[in-house]
Protein: tRNA(Ile)-lysidine synthase
Organism: Candidatus Aeolococcus gillhamiae
Amino acid sequence: MSVHGSTLEPRQRAAAVGRLRRAVAVAIDARGVLKAGETVVVACSGGRDSTALLDALSRLAPPRRLTLHVAHVDHRLRNDSGAEADVVEAAAAQRQLPFTALSVTVALRGSSLQDRARDARHAALAELADRIGATAIALAHTADDQAETVLMRALSGATPRALAAMGERNGRLARPLLRVWRADVDAYCAALALPTVDDPTNDDRRFLRARVRHELLPALEQVFPAARRRLCVLADHQRRLLNG
């Protein structure tokens, strides 16, 4: 576990916190990513993205009558993965929110390991949402995740629909951070010194997304400095075309 302490001046810390919370509030209030009165399962791995989302939603929920329920999913792919649930449970308890620890079995065969883990995770979260009557499942995908997804799909010969990538709201799946950059998430966690855990698979170059994140996109931005933003704009454009 790491605690992201801040070297920022108080004014800078306030700006980092305000920037992210405003972005989430606008996603909810202006774009309807979450609707007033919903019961929301907040999926939290303990990493920076989902911890920032949990903290921001806990602050924004009361005036919007959002009922939050925190969930951690253990994929049981690493020996120490179960301990991460304790960090998330503590974060939920600190905010006086209910918590459920889930564990899944990832299919041995099929698509990539990360895709299989995602499918198992989403199924477990959907089952929990059904059980508690939740109408939304909040996921912590950021604009950087969107850019990575679009690039991977574009280079693998994706269809126009696939290039639309992730939506801010698809059925019950809600992504309030989808227009927030990872740097702003990191600044938020640092400003508030939020305890988080680091998933080593995020830096494991055996996985395609890690190679795209740490090798391909930085190389691309040497030529096209606004590459990430352009990839997100491409997804938005495709979604508008598909939605007519």
